[in-house]
Design a protein that fits this description.
Blueprint: E1 2-3, H1 10-25, H2 32-47, E2 50-51, H3 67-73, H4 79-82, E3 94-96, E4 102-104, E5 121-124, H5 131-138, H6 142-148, E6 162-165, E7 170-174, H7 181-188, H8 192-199, E8 212-216, H9 247-257, E9 269-270, E10 274-275, H10 277-287, H11 296-300, E11 316-320, E12 327-335, E13 338-344, E14 348-353, H12 357-362, E15 363-367
Antiparallel strand pairs: 1-2, 3-4, 5-6, 7-8, 9-10, 11-12, 11-15, 12-13, 13-14
Helix pairs in contact: 1-2, 2-3, 5-6
Length: 371
């Protein structure tokens, strides 16, 4: 059974109200625990009912006034009881839920600002500057400063001298026609993703001729082996031919292997001048007695199309979007999932795997002009 308590004596209610108001405006130096006690007392006194005896049913929760209602009965705004000594902080914005109540509006997280990539910079030497001092100032190695400016170890700097400072320790590479990011990374032994990150490349498949790229952790490439322009080519030993190679296809692969390591030269189509990709394939096929067109589309149309899973040694394999948009590269399949091609100025004529991620992403088609 629920017994109704007598009304709160007027003198007690008045005293609690005076105490609470004094606490809010700061006129009474009550400690925090005492203010909390008054708050609880006000809530209890305003409840208007109590549960007596064991096993008695509790009245419905909605019949009991809330603490806020009880406090308002004493003439005190409850929001000020919690934040003694200053105004309450601003409430988070709310939005009405589908069920009619209010719930806090989620505050979106502050986006992390994208760091501005460092760029290759130019520095004018001042009196007293040293290579070691500049390297420390720009956060790169001393060798990086030397390599970027063609300086020898121990070189002294002259006031007014202009130096190129890479953004990371490593070397700088000037893009030449025919270069691809894959070839550059292979030549320097550096992951493509590191070059992309160091140079903030938006489209790694679009490199501009004469563009300077910072190669993190790279070292200067050895100078290319000079080849006489008019002397007959030095034939490289042919690799062991794949068991797949037969007839004319095997002959084409053997001829191509003779020029392994020859220089890549844009527009070149002979051992005397160097090769570009289609110049290399045209020359090799010509040596096998199979004249084909010089351009990529002509070579693609020179024979029947071949599915990638049905390639045979001697087939031409084509790639798109390498150093320029669209059909842009060609090589000769040698078997075992590999092909030989005039790759780029940094690598020359070399072998690569069709299973490499770069070539998988850029594979276009294949043809078989030798049948």
């Amino acid at each position: 059974m629920v017994k109704r308590l007598p009304s709160v004596p007027a003198w007690l209610a008045a005293r609690v109200r005076i105490r609470l108001r004094s606490l809010v405006v700061g006129r009474a130096p009550y400690p925090p625990w005492r203010g909390l006690g008054l708050t609880l007392a006000a809530a209890a006194l305003g409840a208007g009912a109590a549960v007596a005896g064991l096993g008695l049913r509790r009245p419905p929760a909605q019949a009991l006034p809330t603490a806020a209602v009880a406090l308002q009965g004493f003439g005190v705004r409850p929001g000020y009881l919690v934040y003694h000594g200053g105004p309450p902080p601003a409430r988070p914005p709310t939005q009405v839920s589908s069920r009619g109540g209010e719930r806090p509006t989620p505050i979106p997280p502050t986006p992390t600002p994208t760091p501005t990539p460092k760029k290759i910079s130019t520095y004018r030497v001042a009196a007293g500057d040293t290579v070691a001092g500049l390297a420390e100032r720009f956060g790169v190695s001393a060798e990086t400063v030397l390599w970027a400016n063609g300086l020898q170890s121990g070189a002294s700097l002259q006031p007014g001298q202009e130096l190129t400072i890479p953004p990371v320790s490593g070397v700088l590479h000037k893009v030449r026609r025919g270069d691809t990011l894959y070839d550059i990374a292979q030549a320097y032994g550096v992951g493509m993703e590191r070059i992309v990150e160091a140079n903030a490349l938006e489209n790694p498949d679009r490199l501009a001729v004469d563009q300077l790229l910072a190669i993190p952790g790279g070292r200067p490439l050895p100078p290319p082996t000079p080849r006489p322009l008019l002397a007959p080519p030095t034939l490289a030993p042919a690799p062991t031919l794949s068991a797949e190679a037969t007839g004319k296809g095997a002959e084409i692969v053997a001829i191509a292997a003779r020029y392994l390591g020859y220089a890549y030269v844009y527009g070149g189509s002979s051992p005397a001048t160097g090769f570009d990709c289609s110049g290399f394939t045209q020359y090799v096929y010509g040596q096998a007695g199979l004249p084909i067109a010089r351009d990529l589309w002509g070579q693609l149309a020179a024979g029947p199309a071949v599915k990638q899973g049905e390639l045979l040694p001697g087939d031409l394999v084509f790639f798109h979007d390498t150093y320029e948009a669209g059909l842009s590269h060609v090589g000769i399949y040698v078997g075992g999932g590999n092909f030989i091609h005039a790759s780029s100025p940094t690598r020359g004529v070399c072998y690569d795997s069709l299973g490499a991620a770069y070539w998988v992403a850029h594979y276009y088609a294949a043809s078989r002009p030798w049948r």
